[in-house]
Protein backbone atom coordinates (compact mmCIF):
# COMPACT_ATOMS: atom_id res chain seq x y z
CA UNK A 1 0.00 0.00 0.00
CA UNK A 2 1.40 3.37 -1.03
CA UNK A 3 1.63 6.12 1.61
CA UNK A 4 -0.76 9.04 1.18
CA UNK A 5 0.57 12.28 -0.26
CA UNK A 6 0.53 15.29 2.10
CA UNK A 7 1.59 17.84 -0.49
CA UNK A 8 2.14 17.81 -4.25
CA UNK A 9 3.53 20.16 -6.88
CA UNK A 10 3.99 19.52 -10.60
CA UNK A 11 7.43 20.40 -11.99
CA UNK A 12 9.34 19.83 -15.21
CA UNK A 13 12.21 17.40 -14.81
CA UNK A 14 15.78 17.79 -15.98
CA UNK A 15 18.86 15.60 -15.52
CA UNK A 16 20.90 16.64 -12.48
CA UNK A 17 24.61 17.31 -12.97
CA UNK A 18 26.46 14.06 -12.27
CA UNK A 19 29.33 13.91 -9.78
CA UNK A 20 30.88 11.19 -7.65
CA UNK A 21 28.60 12.15 -4.76
CA UNK A 22 25.34 12.58 -6.71
CA UNK A 23 25.60 10.05 -9.56
CA UNK A 24 24.29 7.13 -7.50
CA UNK A 25 22.39 9.07 -4.80
CA UNK A 26 18.60 9.21 -4.54
CA UNK A 27 18.46 12.92 -3.69
CA UNK A 28 17.02 15.52 -6.05
CA UNK A 29 17.21 19.29 -6.48
CA UNK A 30 14.02 21.33 -6.04
CA UNK A 31 13.28 25.04 -6.55
CA UNK A 32 13.02 27.33 -3.48
CA UNK A 33 9.35 27.85 -4.30
CA UNK A 34 8.64 24.22 -3.42
CA UNK A 35 9.82 24.78 0.15
CA UNK A 36 7.94 28.08 0.33
CA UNK A 37 4.73 26.44 -0.86
CA UNK A 38 5.24 23.62 1.60
CA UNK A 39 5.75 26.01 4.51
CA UNK A 40 2.83 28.22 3.52
CA UNK A 41 0.41 25.37 4.07
CA UNK A 42 1.76 24.69 7.57
CA UNK A 43 0.30 26.51 10.59
CA UNK A 44 1.85 29.85 11.44
CA UNK A 45 4.86 29.74 13.75
CA UNK A 46 4.22 30.60 17.43
CA UNK A 47 5.66 33.90 18.68
CA UNK A 48 9.31 33.77 19.67
CA UNK A 49 10.19 30.78 17.51
CA UNK A 50 13.01 30.89 15.02
CA UNK A 51 12.32 30.92 11.32
CA UNK A 52 12.72 27.52 9.64
CA UNK A 53 15.99 26.85 7.85
CA UNK A 54 16.07 26.06 4.14
CA UNK A 55 17.89 22.75 4.62
CA UNK A 56 15.77 19.73 3.78
CA UNK A 57 18.51 17.13 4.02
CA UNK A 58 18.97 17.32 7.78
CA UNK A 59 20.03 13.82 8.82
CA UNK A 60 18.86 14.11 12.41
CA UNK A 61 15.91 12.96 14.43
CA UNK A 62 14.66 16.51 14.89
CA UNK A 63 11.83 18.09 12.99
CA UNK A 64 10.93 21.70 12.28
CA UNK A 65 8.06 22.75 14.54
CA UNK A 66 5.52 25.25 13.23
CA UNK A 67 2.59 24.59 15.49
CA UNK A 68 1.68 22.56 18.51
CA UNK A 69 1.74 18.92 17.40
CA UNK A 70 2.37 19.79 13.72
CA UNK A 71 5.89 19.14 12.41
CA UNK A 72 7.66 19.01 9.08
CA UNK A 73 9.24 15.55 8.79
CA UNK A 74 12.99 15.14 8.57
CA UNK A 75 14.27 13.88 6.27
CA UNK A 76 11.80 14.85 3.56
CA UNK A 77 10.74 11.80 1.55
CA UNK A 78 9.26 12.49 -1.86
CA UNK A 79 7.37 10.41 -4.40
CA UNK A 80 7.91 11.16 -8.09
CA UNK A 81 4.79 10.39 -10.14
CA UNK A 82 5.22 10.92 -13.92
CA UNK A 83 2.31 12.64 -15.63
CA UNK A 84 3.00 10.88 -18.95
CA UNK A 85 3.91 7.42 -17.63
CA UNK A 86 1.99 4.57 -16.04
CA UNK A 87 1.62 4.50 -12.24
CA UNK A 88 4.14 1.65 -12.08
CA UNK A 89 6.88 4.18 -12.80
CA UNK A 90 6.68 5.72 -9.33
CA UNK A 91 9.95 6.18 -7.40
CA UNK A 92 10.79 7.53 -3.93
CA UNK A 93 13.69 9.81 -3.07
CA UNK A 94 15.01 12.53 -0.79
CA UNK A 95 16.01 16.19 -1.22
CA UNK A 96 19.58 17.41 -1.62
CA UNK A 97 19.00 21.17 -2.02
CA UNK A 98 16.32 23.73 -2.81
CA UNK A 99 18.49 25.39 -5.44
CA UNK A 100 17.19 24.37 -8.88
CA UNK A 101 15.60 26.78 -11.36
CA UNK A 102 12.00 27.71 -10.76
CA UNK A 103 9.55 25.18 -12.15
CA UNK A 104 12.25 22.50 -12.57
CA UNK A 105 13.37 19.47 -10.59
CA UNK A 106 16.96 18.22 -11.00
CA UNK A 107 16.75 14.41 -10.89
CA UNK A 108 19.64 11.92 -11.21
CA UNK A 109 19.53 9.94 -14.43
CA UNK A 110 19.06 6.56 -12.74
CA UNK A 111 15.96 7.85 -10.94
CA UNK A 112 14.61 9.24 -14.21
CA UNK A 113 15.08 5.85 -15.84
CA UNK A 114 13.33 4.11 -12.93
CA UNK A 115 10.35 6.45 -13.25
CA UNK A 116 10.29 6.33 -17.07
CA UNK A 117 11.00 10.05 -17.32
CA UNK A 118 12.72 12.02 -20.04
CA UNK A 119 14.16 15.52 -19.81
CA UNK A 120 11.31 18.00 -20.12
CA UNK A 121 8.57 15.65 -18.88
CA UNK A 122 6.17 16.78 -16.18
CA UNK A 123 6.37 15.03 -12.83
CA UNK A 124 4.32 15.39 -9.65
CA UNK A 125 6.63 15.73 -6.64
CA UNK A 126 4.63 14.52 -3.64
CA UNK A 127 5.61 14.74 0.03
CA UNK A 128 4.92 11.48 1.90
CA UNK A 129 5.67 10.03 5.31
CA UNK A 130 7.39 6.64 5.57
CA UNK A 131 8.08 4.39 8.53
CA UNK A 132 11.62 3.73 9.71
CA UNK A 133 12.98 0.58 8.07
CA UNK A 134 13.94 -2.41 10.21
CA UNK A 135 15.03 -5.00 7.61
CA UNK A 136 15.70 -5.19 3.89
CA UNK A 137 16.36 -8.02 1.45
CA UNK A 138 18.51 -6.97 -1.49
CA UNK A 139 19.50 -8.98 -4.56
CA UNK A 140 22.78 -8.50 -6.40
CA UNK A 141 22.00 -8.61 -10.12
CA UNK A 142 25.60 -9.02 -11.31
CA UNK A 143 27.58 -12.23 -10.64
CA UNK A 144 30.65 -10.02 -10.13
CA UNK A 145 29.25 -9.17 -6.69
CA UNK A 146 30.65 -12.49 -5.46
CA UNK A 147 34.17 -11.10 -5.81
CA UNK A 148 33.44 -8.34 -3.28
CA UNK A 149 34.94 -9.22 0.08
CA UNK A 150 32.42 -7.63 2.49
CA UNK A 151 29.30 -6.95 0.44
CA UNK A 152 27.19 -6.03 3.46
CA UNK A 153 29.65 -3.35 4.63
CA UNK A 154 29.76 -1.94 1.10
CA UNK A 155 25.96 -1.65 0.95
CA UNK A 156 25.69 -0.15 4.41
CA UNK A 157 28.24 2.54 3.56
CA UNK A 158 26.46 3.33 0.28
CA UNK A 159 23.01 3.60 1.88
CA UNK A 160 24.32 5.65 4.79
CA UNK A 161 25.93 8.27 2.54
CA UNK A 162 23.71 8.32 -0.56
CA UNK A 163 20.23 6.92 0.13
CA UNK A 164 17.20 8.37 1.90
CA UNK A 165 14.45 5.81 1.24
CA UNK A 166 14.01 2.31 -0.16
CA UNK A 167 10.94 0.81 -1.83
CA UNK A 168 10.15 -2.68 -3.07
CA UNK A 169 11.10 -3.06 -6.72
CA UNK A 170 13.71 -0.31 -6.68
CA UNK A 171 16.94 -0.86 -8.61
CA UNK A 172 20.05 1.11 -7.73
CA UNK A 173 23.78 0.90 -8.43
CA UNK A 174 26.64 0.79 -5.93
CA UNK A 175 30.12 1.94 -7.03
CA UNK A 176 32.86 -0.50 -6.08
CA UNK A 177 36.54 0.38 -5.88
CA UNK A 178 38.56 -1.47 -8.49
CA UNK A 179 35.56 -2.14 -10.74
CA UNK A 180 34.84 -0.13 -13.87
CA UNK A 181 31.06 -0.51 -13.55
CA UNK A 182 28.88 -0.05 -10.48
CA UNK A 183 27.12 -3.17 -9.21
CA UNK A 184 23.30 -3.24 -9.70
CA UNK A 185 21.02 -4.24 -6.81
CA UNK A 186 17.27 -4.76 -6.54
CA UNK A 187 15.11 -4.31 -3.43
CA UNK A 188 13.21 -7.60 -2.95
CA UNK A 189 11.49 -7.11 0.42
CA UNK A 190 11.25 -4.51 3.18
CA UNK A 191 9.94 -4.36 6.73
CA UNK A 192 7.68 -2.94 8.11
CA UNK A 193 6.28 -1.47 4.85
CA UNK A 194 6.92 -1.43 1.11
CA UNK A 195 8.40 2.08 1.43
CA UNK A 196 10.75 2.82 4.33
CA UNK A 197 12.93 5.64 5.61
CA UNK A 198 16.54 4.47 6.14
CA UNK A 199 18.07 7.64 7.62
CA UNK A 200 19.41 7.09 11.17
CA UNK A 201 18.00 3.56 11.37
CA UNK A 202 19.44 0.23 12.46
CA UNK A 203 18.59 -1.58 9.23
CA UNK A 204 19.19 -5.34 9.03
CA UNK A 205 20.28 -6.24 5.48
CA UNK A 206 19.97 -9.70 3.91
CA UNK A 207 21.68 -10.25 0.55
CA UNK A 208 21.02 -12.82 -2.14
CA UNK A 209 22.97 -13.23 -5.38
CA UNK A 210 21.79 -13.34 -8.95
CA UNK A 211 21.36 -17.15 -8.82
CA UNK A 212 19.22 -16.90 -5.68
CA UNK A 213 21.94 -18.14 -3.31
CA UNK A 214 22.47 -16.22 -0.06
CA UNK A 215 25.60 -14.13 0.41
CA UNK A 216 27.77 -16.76 2.06
CA UNK A 217 30.42 -16.80 -0.66
CA UNK A 218 33.91 -16.46 0.73
CA UNK A 219 37.36 -17.40 -0.41
CA UNK A 220 38.36 -20.99 0.39
CA UNK A 221 39.93 -21.46 3.78
CA UNK A 222 43.64 -22.29 3.86
CA UNK A 223 44.39 -24.20 7.06
CA UNK A 224 47.98 -24.02 8.36
CA UNK A 225 50.20 -27.08 8.52
CA UNK A 226 48.34 -29.17 5.94
CA UNK A 227 49.30 -29.09 2.21
CA UNK A 228 46.35 -28.49 -0.06
CA UNK A 229 45.99 -29.39 -3.71
CA UNK A 230 45.10 -26.55 -6.06
CA UNK A 231 44.33 -26.55 -9.79
CA UNK A 232 43.97 -23.34 -11.78
CA UNK A 233 41.98 -23.01 -15.01
CA UNK A 234 43.50 -20.78 -17.67
CA UNK A 235 44.78 -17.51 -16.28
CA UNK A 236 42.06 -17.26 -13.62
CA UNK A 237 43.52 -17.09 -10.08
CA UNK A 238 42.54 -19.51 -7.35
CA UNK A 239 42.03 -17.55 -4.13
CA UNK A 240 42.35 -18.69 -0.51
CA UNK A 241 41.77 -16.93 2.78
CA UNK A 242 44.33 -17.49 5.53
CA UNK A 243 43.51 -16.50 9.12
CA UNK A 244 46.56 -15.53 11.17
CA UNK A 245 46.12 -15.76 14.98
CA UNK A 246 47.26 -12.80 17.04
CA UNK A 247 50.08 -14.75 18.71
CA UNK A 248 51.71 -15.74 15.40
CA UNK A 249 54.81 -13.66 14.65
CA UNK A 250 55.11 -14.64 10.97
CA UNK A 251 53.68 -16.98 8.36
CA UNK A 252 55.32 -18.75 5.42
CA UNK A 253 53.23 -19.63 2.38
CA UNK A 254 54.83 -22.30 0.18
CA UNK A 255 53.62 -23.32 -3.29
CA UNK A 256 55.11 -26.38 -5.02
CA UNK A 257 54.11 -26.83 -8.68
CA UNK A 258 53.95 -30.22 -10.38
CA UNK A 259 56.56 -30.91 -13.11
CA UNK A 260 55.63 -29.29 -16.39
CA UNK A 261 53.51 -26.51 -14.83
CA UNK A 262 54.22 -23.22 -13.13
CA UNK A 263 52.35 -20.50 -11.26
CA UNK A 264 52.79 -17.15 -9.54
CA UNK A 265 52.04 -16.75 -5.84
CA UNK A 266 50.56 -13.47 -4.59
CA UNK A 267 48.94 -12.26 -1.37
CA UNK A 268 47.00 -9.21 -0.26
CA UNK A 269 45.02 -7.92 2.69
CA UNK A 270 41.98 -7.33 0.45
CA UNK A 271 40.27 -10.12 -1.46
CA UNK A 272 39.48 -7.88 -4.46
CA UNK A 273 43.08 -6.69 -4.52
CA UNK A 274 44.89 -10.00 -5.00
CA UNK A 275 46.31 -11.15 -8.34
CA UNK A 276 49.41 -10.84 -10.49
CA UNK A 277 48.83 -7.09 -10.98
CA UNK A 278 47.16 -6.33 -7.64
CA UNK A 279 48.97 -7.58 -4.57
CA UNK A 280 50.95 -6.68 -1.48
CA UNK A 281 53.32 -9.66 -1.47
CA UNK A 282 54.32 -11.63 -4.59
CA UNK A 283 56.64 -14.31 -5.99
CA UNK A 284 57.07 -14.08 -9.77
CA UNK A 285 60.01 -16.50 -9.79
CA UNK A 286 60.57 -18.57 -12.97
CA UNK A 287 59.61 -22.26 -13.40
CA UNK A 288 63.10 -23.51 -12.50
CA UNK A 289 62.85 -22.00 -9.02
CA UNK A 290 60.69 -24.25 -6.89
CA UNK A 291 58.98 -23.95 -4.49
CA UNK A 292 57.44 -20.47 -4.57
CA UNK A 293 57.51 -18.79 -1.18
CA UNK A 294 56.05 -15.77 0.61
CA UNK A 295 56.89 -14.72 4.16
CA UNK A 296 54.56 -12.28 5.91
CA UNK A 297 55.62 -10.76 9.23
CA UNK A 298 53.07 -9.71 11.83
CA UNK A 299 54.28 -6.10 11.74
CA UNK A 300 53.46 -5.98 8.00
CA UNK A 301 49.77 -6.37 8.77
CA UNK A 302 47.69 -3.36 9.86
CA UNK A 303 46.54 -3.15 13.45
CA UNK A 304 43.52 -5.40 14.02
CA UNK A 305 43.99 -7.38 10.80
CA UNK A 306 44.05 -11.15 11.23
CA UNK A 307 43.73 -12.53 7.72
CA UNK A 308 45.29 -12.32 4.26
CA UNK A 309 44.11 -13.51 0.85
CA UNK A 310 46.40 -15.71 -1.24
CA UNK A 311 46.05 -16.26 -4.99
CA UNK A 312 47.66 -18.85 -7.27
CA UNK A 313 47.74 -17.92 -10.98
CA UNK A 314 48.99 -20.47 -13.49
CA UNK A 315 51.49 -19.59 -16.23
CA UNK A 316 51.03 -19.77 -19.15
CA UNK A 317 47.73 -21.53 -18.43
CA UNK A 318 46.39 -24.25 -16.16
CA UNK A 319 48.56 -25.39 -13.28
CA UNK A 320 48.47 -28.10 -10.63
CA UNK A 321 50.29 -27.51 -7.39
CA UNK A 322 50.27 -27.97 -3.63
CA UNK A 323 50.03 -24.99 -1.28
CA UNK A 324 50.81 -24.92 2.42
CA UNK A 325 50.88 -22.29 5.17
CA UNK A 326 53.34 -22.58 8.04
CA UNK A 327 53.31 -20.44 11.16
CA UNK A 328 56.43 -19.14 12.91
CA UNK A 329 58.87 -20.97 10.65
CA UNK A 330 61.84 -19.24 8.99
CA UNK A 331 62.36 -19.66 5.25
CA UNK A 332 63.94 -22.99 4.34
CA UNK A 333 66.74 -21.31 2.40
CA UNK A 334 67.70 -19.24 5.47
CA UNK A 335 69.50 -22.28 6.90
CA UNK A 336 71.35 -22.99 3.65
CA UNK A 337 72.56 -19.44 3.13
CA UNK A 338 76.29 -19.10 3.85
CA UNK A 339 77.41 -15.59 4.74
CA UNK A 340 80.18 -14.24 2.63
CA UNK A 341 83.48 -13.68 4.40
CA UNK A 342 87.07 -14.74 4.83
CA UNK A 343 87.89 -18.46 5.16
CA UNK A 344 88.62 -19.93 8.59
CA UNK A 345 92.23 -20.01 9.83
CA UNK A 346 94.17 -22.78 8.08
CA UNK A 347 91.88 -22.65 4.99
CA UNK A 348 92.03 -20.93 1.63
CA UNK A 349 89.28 -19.78 -0.72
CA UNK A 350 89.10 -21.52 -4.13
CA UNK A 351 89.03 -18.91 -6.89
CA UNK A 352 87.00 -21.22 -9.16
CA UNK A 353 84.17 -22.60 -7.01
CA UNK A 354 84.47 -20.28 -4.00
CA UNK A 355 84.74 -23.12 -1.46
CA UNK A 356 86.91 -22.97 1.65
CA UNK A 357 89.62 -25.64 1.33
CA UNK A 358 92.29 -26.70 3.89
CA UNK A 359 95.59 -25.07 2.94
CA UNK A 360 97.38 -28.45 2.83
CA UNK A 361 95.10 -29.68 0.00
CA UNK A 362 94.50 -26.38 -1.74
CA UNK A 363 96.83 -26.90 -4.73
CA UNK A 364 95.35 -30.34 -5.52
CA UNK A 365 91.78 -29.03 -5.14
CA UNK A 366 92.49 -26.07 -7.43
CA UNK A 367 93.79 -28.32 -10.24
CA UNK A 368 90.92 -30.83 -10.00
CA UNK A 369 88.26 -28.11 -9.65
CA UNK A 370 89.38 -26.17 -12.74
CA UNK A 371 89.55 -29.43 -14.74
CA UNK A 372 85.98 -30.58 -13.88
CA UNK A 373 84.07 -27.39 -12.99
CA UNK A 374 83.47 -24.06 -14.68
CA UNK A 375 82.18 -20.83 -13.21
CA UNK A 376 79.60 -18.68 -15.00
CA UNK A 377 81.27 -15.40 -15.95
CA UNK A 378 78.08 -13.41 -15.18
CA UNK A 379 76.98 -14.96 -11.87
CA UNK A 380 78.62 -16.91 -9.01
CA UNK A 381 77.09 -20.26 -9.97
CA UNK A 382 79.46 -23.19 -10.71
CA UNK A 383 78.59 -26.05 -13.12
CA UNK A 384 80.18 -29.33 -14.10
CA UNK A 385 81.76 -29.04 -17.53
CA UNK A 386 79.57 -30.49 -20.30
CA UNK A 387 76.57 -30.99 -17.98
CA UNK A 388 72.97 -30.53 -19.08
CA UNK A 389 72.54 -27.98 -16.31
CA UNK A 390 75.27 -25.85 -17.89
CA UNK A 391 73.56 -26.11 -21.27
CA UNK A 392 70.24 -24.93 -19.79
CA UNK A 393 71.80 -22.03 -17.87
CA UNK A 394 70.61 -18.66 -19.21
CA UNK A 395 71.00 -14.93 -18.55
CA UNK A 396 68.59 -12.20 -19.64
CA UNK A 397 70.39 -9.82 -21.99
CA UNK A 398 68.25 -6.89 -20.82
CA UNK A 399 68.57 -7.14 -17.03
CA UNK A 400 71.07 -9.94 -16.38
CA UNK A 401 68.62 -12.16 -14.45
CA UNK A 402 69.77 -15.79 -14.24
CA UNK A 403 67.79 -18.98 -14.72
CA UNK A 404 67.22 -21.71 -17.25
CA UNK A 405 66.26 -21.53 -20.90
CA UNK A 406 62.66 -22.43 -20.04
CA UNK A 407 62.40 -19.39 -17.77
CA UNK A 408 62.74 -16.91 -20.62
CA UNK A 409 59.03 -16.67 -21.54
CA UNK A 410 57.79 -16.02 -18.01
CA UNK A 411 60.62 -13.62 -17.28
CA UNK A 412 59.88 -11.58 -20.42
CA UNK A 413 56.13 -11.65 -19.66
CA UNK A 414 56.56 -10.27 -16.15
CA UNK A 415 59.61 -8.02 -16.50
CA UNK A 416 59.97 -6.91 -20.12
CA UNK A 417 56.44 -6.55 -21.52
CA UNK A 418 55.07 -2.97 -21.34
CA UNK A 419 51.75 -2.63 -19.53
CA UNK A 420 49.23 0.19 -19.14
CA UNK A 421 47.17 0.76 -16.02
CA UNK A 422 43.43 1.26 -16.36
CA UNK A 423 43.78 4.52 -14.42
CA UNK A 424 45.79 6.12 -17.25
CA UNK A 425 45.92 4.29 -20.57
CA UNK A 426 48.22 6.94 -22.03
CA UNK A 427 51.05 6.05 -19.64
CA UNK A 428 52.88 2.76 -20.17
CA UNK A 429 54.77 0.88 -17.47
CA UNK A 430 57.90 -1.01 -18.47
CA UNK A 431 56.76 -4.34 -17.01
CA UNK A 432 54.07 -6.15 -15.09
CA UNK A 433 56.23 -5.95 -11.99
CA UNK A 434 56.43 -2.16 -12.35
CA UNK A 435 52.67 -2.01 -12.96
CA UNK A 436 52.06 -4.03 -9.80
CA UNK A 437 54.28 -1.63 -7.84
CA UNK A 438 52.26 1.30 -9.23
CA UNK A 439 48.93 -0.32 -8.33
CA UNK A 440 49.98 -1.07 -4.77
CA UNK A 441 51.24 2.47 -4.08
CA UNK A 442 50.26 5.49 -6.20
CA UNK A 443 47.39 4.22 -8.40
CA UNK A 444 44.05 6.01 -7.82
CA UNK A 445 42.33 2.62 -8.26
CA UNK A 446 44.33 1.01 -5.44
CA UNK A 447 41.92 -0.57 -2.97
CA UNK A 448 42.25 0.47 0.64
CA UNK A 449 40.23 -0.03 3.79
CA UNK A 450 39.33 3.53 4.70
CA UNK A 451 40.43 4.32 8.25
CA UNK A 452 37.32 6.47 8.75
CA UNK A 453 34.36 4.69 7.08
CA UNK A 454 35.98 1.21 7.27
CA UNK A 455 34.86 0.21 3.79
CA UNK A 456 36.99 -1.08 0.93
CA UNK A 457 37.20 1.68 -1.68
CA UNK A 458 39.58 3.07 -4.28
CA UNK A 459 42.00 5.51 -2.67
CA UNK A 460 41.49 8.07 -5.43
CA UNK A 461 44.05 10.53 -6.80
CA UNK A 462 46.74 11.91 -4.55
CA UNK A 463 45.52 14.80 -2.43
CA UNK A 464 47.33 18.10 -2.88
CA UNK A 465 46.79 19.59 0.59
CA UNK A 466 50.05 19.72 2.60
CA UNK A 467 48.35 18.07 5.58
CA UNK A 468 47.18 15.19 3.37
CA UNK A 469 50.71 14.68 2.09
CA UNK A 470 52.04 14.54 5.66
CA UNK A 471 49.34 12.03 6.66
CA UNK A 472 49.87 9.94 3.52
CA UNK A 473 46.22 10.23 2.52
CA UNK A 474 44.67 10.18 -0.94
CA UNK A 475 41.44 11.79 -2.11
CA UNK A 476 38.94 9.38 -0.53
CA UNK A 477 40.39 9.37 2.98
CA UNK A 478 40.98 13.12 2.84
CA UNK A 479 37.33 13.76 1.90
CA UNK A 480 35.98 11.09 4.23
CA UNK A 481 37.99 12.46 7.14
CA UNK A 482 36.56 15.95 6.55
CA UNK A 483 33.27 14.96 8.17
CA UNK A 484 32.92 16.49 11.62
CA UNK A 485 31.72 15.13 14.95
CA UNK A 486 31.19 16.75 18.33
CA UNK A 487 33.98 16.29 20.86
CA UNK A 488 32.72 14.40 23.91
CA UNK A 489 34.68 16.70 26.25
CA UNK A 490 34.44 20.23 24.89
CA UNK A 491 31.47 19.73 22.47
CA UNK A 492 33.40 21.48 19.68
CA UNK A 493 32.94 20.26 16.10
CA UNK A 494 36.11 18.43 15.06
CA UNK A 495 36.85 16.77 11.72
CA UNK A 496 37.25 13.00 12.03
CA UNK A 497 40.86 13.00 10.86
CA UNK A 498 41.77 15.46 13.63
CA UNK A 499 40.01 13.64 16.47
CA UNK A 500 43.15 11.89 17.72
CA UNK A 501 45.15 15.13 17.72
CA UNK A 502 42.25 16.99 19.35
CA UNK A 503 41.93 14.41 22.14
CA UNK A 504 45.69 14.46 22.63
CA UNK A 505 45.44 18.22 23.21
CA UNK A 506 42.90 17.55 25.95
CA UNK A 507 45.25 14.96 27.48
CA UNK A 508 48.20 17.37 27.38
CA UNK A 509 46.13 20.10 29.03
CA UNK A 510 45.11 17.69 31.76
CA UNK A 511 48.72 16.55 32.23
CA UNK A 512 49.88 20.18 32.43
CA UNK A 513 47.15 20.98 34.95
CA UNK A 514 48.16 18.04 37.13
CA UNK A 515 51.84 18.96 36.87
CA UNK A 516 51.23 22.44 38.27
CA UNK A 517 48.44 21.35 40.64
CA UNK A 518 48.97 22.10 44.33
CA UNK A 519 47.34 19.27 46.32
CA UNK A 520 44.82 19.74 49.10
CA UNK A 521 46.42 20.03 52.57
CA UNK A 522 44.14 17.18 53.74
CA UNK A 523 46.31 14.04 53.58
CA UNK A 524 43.23 11.91 52.80
CA UNK A 525 42.37 13.92 49.68
CA UNK A 526 44.02 14.10 46.23
CA UNK A 527 42.12 17.06 44.78
CA UNK A 528 43.55 20.43 43.83
CA UNK A 529 43.92 22.99 46.61
CA UNK A 530 41.30 25.70 46.62
CA UNK A 531 41.48 29.40 47.44
CA UNK A 532 40.77 29.32 51.19
CA UNK A 533 42.67 29.97 54.42
CA UNK A 534 42.99 26.30 55.42
CA UNK A 535 44.58 25.20 52.14
CA UNK A 536 41.81 22.68 51.49
CA UNK A 537 40.02 21.80 48.26
CA UNK A 538 36.43 22.92 47.74
CA UNK A 539 35.02 19.53 48.78
CA UNK A 540 36.96 19.40 52.06
CA UNK A 541 36.42 23.07 52.92
CA UNK A 542 32.67 23.01 52.16
CA UNK A 543 31.50 21.54 55.54
CA UNK A 544 33.61 24.14 57.38
CA UNK A 545 32.34 27.18 55.48
CA UNK A 546 29.91 29.67 56.97
CA UNK A 547 28.70 33.10 55.99
CA UNK A 548 29.12 34.56 59.48
CA UNK A 549 31.32 37.61 60.04
CA UNK A 550 34.68 36.27 61.24
CA UNK A 551 37.48 38.83 60.80
CA UNK A 552 40.01 37.07 63.06
CA UNK A 553 39.10 33.51 61.86
CA UNK A 554 38.35 32.29 65.41
CA UNK A 555 35.04 30.76 64.35
CA UNK A 556 36.69 28.97 61.39
CA UNK A 557 39.32 27.41 63.65
CA UNK A 558 36.64 26.40 66.19
CA UNK A 559 34.64 24.61 63.45
CA UNK A 560 37.81 22.80 62.36
CA UNK A 561 38.57 21.78 65.96
CA UNK A 562 35.00 20.51 66.54
CA UNK A 563 35.04 18.53 63.29
CA UNK A 564 38.39 16.85 64.08
CA UNK A 565 37.41 16.16 67.72
CA UNK A 566 34.13 14.50 66.69
CA UNK A 567 35.97 12.49 64.05
CA UNK A 568 38.47 11.14 66.64
CA UNK A 569 35.93 10.40 69.38
CA UNK A 570 32.78 9.41 67.49
CA UNK A 571 33.81 8.73 63.86
CA UNK A 572 32.36 9.62 60.50
CA UNK A 573 30.17 6.48 60.25
CA UNK A 574 31.13 5.69 56.66
CA UNK A 575 31.38 1.92 55.95
CA UNK A 576 34.24 2.61 53.51
CA UNK A 577 36.32 4.79 55.84
CA UNK A 578 39.97 3.74 56.20
CA UNK A 579 41.23 6.94 57.86
CA UNK A 580 43.31 5.95 60.93
CA UNK A 581 42.67 9.42 62.39
CA UNK A 582 38.96 8.62 62.56
CA UNK A 583 37.20 6.38 65.09
CA UNK A 584 35.27 4.64 62.30
CA UNK A 585 38.42 4.00 60.23
CA UNK A 586 40.33 2.74 63.27
CA UNK A 587 37.51 0.33 63.97
CA UNK A 588 37.60 -1.03 60.42
CA UNK A 589 41.36 -1.49 60.79
CA UNK A 590 40.82 -3.63 63.91
CA UNK A 591 42.18 -1.20 66.48
CA UNK A 592 41.22 -2.09 70.05
CA UNK A 593 40.90 1.58 71.02
CA UNK A 594 38.97 2.82 68.02
CA UNK A 595 37.22 5.89 69.58
CA UNK A 596 39.71 8.06 71.47
CA UNK A 597 38.90 9.64 74.80
CA UNK A 598 38.19 13.35 75.06
CA UNK A 599 41.67 14.00 76.48
CA UNK A 600 43.47 11.91 73.82
CA UNK A 601 41.58 13.61 71.01
CA UNK A 602 42.39 17.06 72.41
CA UNK A 603 46.07 16.18 72.63
CA UNK A 604 46.10 15.20 68.93
CA UNK A 605 44.42 18.48 67.99
CA UNK A 606 47.00 20.72 69.64
CA UNK A 607 49.74 20.48 66.90
CA UNK A 608 47.19 21.06 64.13
CA UNK A 609 45.60 24.10 65.74
CA UNK A 610 49.04 25.48 66.62
CA UNK A 611 50.02 25.27 62.94
CA UNK A 612 46.88 27.20 61.95
CA UNK A 613 47.31 29.76 64.81
CA UNK A 614 48.83 32.45 62.52
CA UNK A 615 45.40 32.78 60.89
CA UNK A 616 44.21 34.61 64.01
CA UNK A 617 47.08 37.11 63.82
CA UNK A 618 46.91 40.34 61.92
CA UNK A 619 48.02 40.14 58.30
CA UNK A 620 47.63 36.35 58.08
CA UNK A 621 51.30 35.25 57.91
CA UNK A 622 52.13 32.51 55.42
CA UNK A 623 51.42 28.96 56.55
CA UNK A 624 53.38 25.87 55.53
CA UNK A 625 50.42 23.65 54.64
CA UNK A 626 52.69 20.75 53.65
CA UNK A 627 53.95 20.48 57.23
CA UNK A 628 50.43 20.15 58.73
CA UNK A 629 49.45 16.54 59.44
CA UNK A 630 45.72 17.02 58.75
CA UNK A 631 43.51 13.95 58.13
CA UNK A 632 39.89 14.83 57.44
CA UNK A 633 37.44 12.19 56.26
CA UNK A 634 36.28 12.89 52.71
UniProtKB/TrEMBL annotation:
It holds the Pfam family UFD1_N1. Residues 558-604 form the Ubiquitin-protein ligase E3A N-terminal zinc-binding domain. Keywords: Ubl conjugation pathway. Residues 39-68 are annotated as: Disordered. It comes from the Eukaryota. One of its GO terms (molecular function) is polyubiquitin modification-dependent protein binding. GO terms for biological process: ERAD pathway; ubiquitin-dependent protein catabolic process. Residues 74-129 form the Ubiquitin fusion degradation protein UFD1 N-terminal subdomain domain. GO terms for cellular component: VCP-NPL4-UFD1 AAA ATPase complex. Gene3D superfamilies: 3.10.330.10, Ubiquitin fusion degradation protein UFD1, N-terminal domain, Ubiquitin-protein ligase E3A, N-terminal zinc-binding domain (AZUL). The keyword Protein biosynthesis does not apply. The keyword Acyltransferase does not apply. Belongs to the UFD1 family. This is Ubiquitin-protein ligase E3A N-terminal zinc-binding domain-containing protein.
Amino acid sequence: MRPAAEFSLVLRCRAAAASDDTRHADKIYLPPSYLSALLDRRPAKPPGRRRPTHSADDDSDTALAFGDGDRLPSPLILRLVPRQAAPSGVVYCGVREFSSDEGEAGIPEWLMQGAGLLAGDLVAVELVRAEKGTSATLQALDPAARSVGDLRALLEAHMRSRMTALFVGERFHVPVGGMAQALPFAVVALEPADVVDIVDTDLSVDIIHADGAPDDNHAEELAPGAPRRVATAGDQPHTFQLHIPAHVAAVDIVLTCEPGSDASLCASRIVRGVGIADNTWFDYSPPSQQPKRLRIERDQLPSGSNSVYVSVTGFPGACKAAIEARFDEPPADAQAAVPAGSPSPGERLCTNCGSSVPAARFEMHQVVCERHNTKCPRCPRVFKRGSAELERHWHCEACGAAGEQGDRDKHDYFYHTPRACSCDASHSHASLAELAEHRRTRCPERLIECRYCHTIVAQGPAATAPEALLLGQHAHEWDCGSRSIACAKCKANVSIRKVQVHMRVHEMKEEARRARMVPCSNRECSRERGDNLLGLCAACFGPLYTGQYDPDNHKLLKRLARSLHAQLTVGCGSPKCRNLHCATGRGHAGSAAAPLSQTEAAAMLVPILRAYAPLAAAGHPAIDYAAIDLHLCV
